[in-house]
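Pasting as-is:
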Amino acid sequence: MRSFPQDTRIYAIGDAVDDFYVLAEGMVRFTLGLGKRETSAGDIIRRGEVFGWAPLVEGHERRIATAYCLTPCEVVAIDGSALNTLIESDSALGYALMKKLAVLLTSELVAFAAG
């Protein structure tokens, strides 16, 4: 569990990819970026939602989004490498998680395309 005060970045575009997050308390603004373009795709993340999914996408070593605390936040930080190892060893868990990730990524891309 990690605590972040209000008005703090959890990560920014270009940061190294490490952890996958579950928001336990608070609200986070998620801003997706591409080149010089940023949009509030995904907008507000609330308690129980996941973010920082880049460690689960092979070949991505840098963040393509910013996660910023709108309120004081408590997050569960899950080591991306350890989670990938678990996913590879438990195919049912891996399938369920990747299915959820596909839905999340699709909604983020649709929101980003809408501008």
